[in-house]
Design goal:
Elements (H helix, E strand, L loop, with lengths): L1 E2 L2 E4 L3 H10 L5 E4 L16 E2 L6 H15 L10 E3 L2 E5 L4 H8 L5 E4 L1 H7 L10 E5 L3 E3 L1 H14 L3 E3 L4 E6 L4 E5 L2 E5 L1 E4 L5 H7 L8 E10 L12 E4 L5 E5 L2 E5 L4 E2 L9 H14 L9 E9 L6 E4 L6 E5 L9 H13 L7 H7 L10
Parallel strand pairs: 1-13, 2-3, 2-14, 3-10, 6-16, 14-22
Antiparallel strand pairs: 4-9, 5-9, 6-8, 7-8, 11-12, 12-13, 15-18, 15-19, 15-20, 16-17, 17-18, 21-22
Helix pairs in contact: 1-5, 1-8, 2-8, 2-9
Bound molecules: flavin-adenine dinucleotide.
Length: about 375
């Protein structure tokens, strides 16, 4: 039987980053069901950091995460970010959404249709009624980030066990007993970083589900449109999130920005959803899509209020939630990892109290575990 101060269930970016922060003070063990860390949502993201993405709570997390991305002490010897920019365009009927996005946003510029098409020459200017550019949106090197946190965890004496699908969780007198792949582990605190499986993991532990729902998002790689060097283009898309495209190693990643509710599973794209999304992209640009090189899908898992769920529920001792990161789980991970470590070690969080309260599972009612 292996004992630790904290057992983290899930070796995605949430679990690994929180483990690395916690390992500064405590013995930490991560149990990951797959053969490698980052196999599910973390390995399938669009890898972009957008400061104005999400509601006020998420924007507070984005702001707290930015300095860690820029100077990732102990994780990498250089910034995990590189310049990209994000250009969102709106048709006449989408201008309300554009105005709402700009409300409270910082560091953005309004562009005309001609200016937008100058930045991304394949955009058709005619349907564009307005556009907004966030110059500060940046690419994230997700693999360097994940591996950097994993190295930091190891250097601090923590451990990751892969191929360790957690099947049973029971609460003993003063500690949890967790069974994974025939091995038993104990710890007074468990962290539920199960991504799309966060609710099933909670139920295994006898805690009540909070209603975290996985939604599928697909993406495809297409060749760069003829004669275009796409490397310096920003990510570009519809403000109403009906499609977006992002330069990716000299090619374009195009996503239908789909959000279909599904059960937790090893996700793959639905051909029809992909085709419809590529059609919407084609309507906005001057070049037809002639070939897909590769496609994939992943799950973005949201709580009902689309805000992450982070903290002790309060009813079941030692059960900590780190879930519901939706479409922002990579960019918020450094901030949520610090918050997780602060709450578990009993330190006062750096984040404002209203942000901490908005993230708490206690917001779902008294009987949430
Ligand atoms: C197409 C797409 C684009 C995205 N783009 C961005 C983006 O640009 N920027 C951004 O910030 N975010 C983006 N996201 C969201 C981001 O990828 C997720 O929010 C983030 O990866 C969630 O991390 P996680 O660690 O919670 O989940 P995961 O990476 O899914 O990790 C959870 C882990 O828990 C493990 N697990 C579950 N149950 C058990 C069990 N019983 N026992 C053991 N292990 C278990 C799973 O195997 C899994 O590895 C995108 C997502 C998708 C799908």
């Amino acid at each position: 039987m292996t004992h630790a101060d904290v057992i983290i269930i899930g070796g995605g970016i949430a679990g690994i980053s929180a483990a690395a922060e916690l390992a500064a003070d405590l013995t930490v063990l991560v149990l990951e069901g797959e053969a490698q860390i980052g196999y599910h949502s973390t390995g399938r993201s669009a890898a972009i950091f957008i400061r104005n993405y999400g509601n006020d709570t998420l924007r507070a997390l984005n702001a707290a995460a930015a300095p860690i991305f820029e100077a990732p002490e102990g994780i990498s010897d250089r910034s995990l970010l590189s310049p990209r920019g994000e250009l969102m365009v709106a048709g006449e009927a989408e201008m309300d959404t554009l105005e709402a996005y700009c409300d409270g946003a910082t560091g953005i510029d309004r562009l005309t249709a001609a200016e937008a098409a100058e930045l991304v020459p394949i955009l058709r200017p005619d349907p564009i009624a307005g556009a907004v550019l966030e110059r500060d949106a940046q690419d994230i090197d997700v693999d360097r980030m994940l591996q950097g946190y994993a190295r930091l965890l190891k250097a601090r004496g923590g451990r990751v066990v892969t191929g360790a699908q957690v099947q049973k969780i029971t609460r003993g007198h003063s500690a949890w007993q967790v069974t994974a792949a025939g091995e038993a582990y104990t710890a007074p605190v468990i962290v539920n970083a199960g991504g799309a499986w966060a609710d099933p993991v909670a139920q295994l532990a006898g805690a009540r589900a909070v209603g975290i729902r996985p939604y599928r998002r697909s993406a495809a790689i297409i060749p760069a449109p003829d004669g275009h060097d796409v490397d310096r283009w920003p990510l570009f898309g519809a403000i109403t999130e009906t499609w977006y495209a992002k330069p990716e190693a000299g090619k374009l990643m195009v996503s239908p920005a789909d959000e279909d509710p599904v059960d937790p599973h090893d996700a793959w794209p639905d051909d029809m959803v992909l085709a419809e999304g590529l059609y919407r992209f084609e309507q906005a640009v001057t070049h037809p899509v002639t070939r897909l090189e590769h496609s994939w899908a992943g799950l973005r898992s949201f709580a009902p209020d689309r805000t992450p769920v982070v903290g002790f529920g309060g009813q079941t001792e030692g059960f900590f939630w780190l879930a519901g990161q939706g479409g922002y789980g990579v960019q918020t991970a450094p901030a949520l990892a610090c918050l997780t470590a602060e709450l578990i070690t009993g330190q006062t969080p750096d984040l404002p109290p209203e942000t901490v309260a908005a993230l708490s599972p206690k917001r779902f009612g008294k009987d949430i575990q």
